[in-house]
Amino acid sequence: MFAEESSDWNLDLGGSVTCEVCGEEPATIHLLRVVDGTVSHTHLCPGCAEEMAEQTDGLALVLAVPSVLRNLAKPAVSQENLPTLSHEEDRFCAVCGTTLTDFRESGLVGCANCYQVFSEDLERLSAQGAEPTEHLGKMPRRGPETDTLRHEIMRLERMLHELVACERFEEAAGVRDRLAELGQRLEVGQE
Amino acid sequence: MRSPVITASAMGLTRNESGRRFPHAEDPAALEEVRAEVVEALAGPGWEREWGVHDLDSLSTVQIDYFVEKGLMTPGFAEGSNVGRGFAVYGENEASLEINGGDHLRLLGFRSGGQLAMLWALLNHLDDRLETVFSYAFDPRWGYLTAQPRQAGSGMRAYATLHLPALGLTGRLAGTALELAHQGLGLVPLWGGAGGIVQVSNMHSDGRPEPDTLQQIGDVCRGIVEKERSVRKMLVRENPIQSRDQIGRALGVAQQAWVMSFPEAVNLISAATVGIELGLVDAPGLEAESAFGLMSRLQPAHIVVDYMSGKTDCVESPEVDERRALVLRGVFAGASVRV
């Protein structure tokens, strides 16, 4: 069976973003405590969370949500980084009508096209370390060949970067040639 | 007796059909189309086992709770009510499929013991078969696309259930959960914290290869359970009389109670299991099956369906608590603390 995830755990903190203990640092940890069957939620900065973890007695659990996940769902964590959007700035997806404000409030996107429309927000948030820069897991078997090519190109680009960093230039040249070849095939495929 | 590191394994695999909006943003008519397409595909050839498709509108609360308790349905899906939802079970409860919940498709699997790799193999296989019918929303950068971007990537979320009463009792779980959070893993109570039963899962489904994620969860769980075992030994070593007293009291209540809530039953079984594993307790009835198996069959909807022939529509009633106590008395008959 699957543990129930209350909506409060679901990264939607309703704007409660400063640490509830010190009131100064941004809350990046969601602490869930279960004592005698009663559940309480606290939003804490890492320092206060560590302190509270040490002080916790009895049957107590925590669900600690790293800040970057919450940011991904609800980036309104830092008002400095995310000022209120003007009408012009509030981009929207032409396919499903989801606006950037919708995404920030609900943590949900409406369709595949949203990933292109809001890619900057997703990229900026993923740059904080939660996501790898490419997908390395399973891929659809019958996806378009161009998808497979783009995936392979991204993999080789990363390999090239690492080989250059290690000064293994001979192998890097081989990878570079392979990249050029795949690049040409991708261009032909897209024409 | 030494219980397995992972008490139970569960997995969810999320997919969406390309060219359609995700369920919360899609038209009801289009969602009905998705459901019809899926149901047709499930009835088609090429499956090793048959799919049993259930009409959610005709399922009773008890039946839905039963699916949730068996790990075939997520609590979130059970509470949903949007148009176009569908639900199907594969073979003899080997896997299940939620249609038009948060996403178009979510394959689910649940097994006792450490079976994450086996679950991934099965769900991966079913996913391959579904993909011959559906074109999935996929992006080389983001992986499989989902309504919640944090779930995009592999679309896989794996859950390992652990039994950690000693870490809970000594206040060590909080620190453990914080350590896990730094590794992108979450630690949450399964049954409101009863019995120290928790689930460790990958909080986001990133683009790493799926076996890497499973390996990480397995490694982390082994470390946590080793810590649990050493804390149990320490507790008995430092508090020999109190430990036996607490476990003995648990046995006494289990043997003599006539009304038993589910959380209390889980706590008692948890204490008795620790006693058995430390060699402090003889409990022939409990040694015959896994503690988690016993806890599972004492869940409210299980009691109603398995022991009361579904004769009540209410999973929280005095009759259910009485029946649970009766089952527990039978299991714990003859159990005692070793002198």
List keywords for this structure.
heterodimer, A: 191 residues, mainly alpha, two-stranded antiparallel sheet, 7 helices, 2 strands, B: 339 residues, alpha+beta, Creatine Kinase, Chain A, domain 2, 2 domains, 46% helix
Rounded mean pLDDT score of chain B = 91
Report the portion of residues of chain A in β strands: 5-15%
Rg of chain A, nearest Å: 22 Å
Outline type of chain B = globular
Number of strands of chain B: 12
In CATH, the homologous superfamily of the largest domain in chain B goes by the name: Glutamine synthetase/guanido kinase, catalytic domain
How much β-strand is present in the residues of chain B? 15-25%
Distance between the termini of chain A: 49 Å
Which CATH class of the largest domain in chain B applies here? Alpha Beta
Biggest sheet architecture of chain A? 2 strands, antiparallel
Sheet with the most strands: spatial strand order of chain B: 2-3-4-5-1-8-10-9
Q: Strand order within the widest sheet of chain A?
A: 1-2
Which outline of chain A best applies?
Answer: extended
Order of helices and strands of chain B: EHEHHEEEHEEEHHEEHHHEHHHHE
What gap, in angstroms, lies between the N and C termini of chain B?
18 Å
Binned, the helix content of chain A reads 40-55%
Count of the domains of chain B: 2
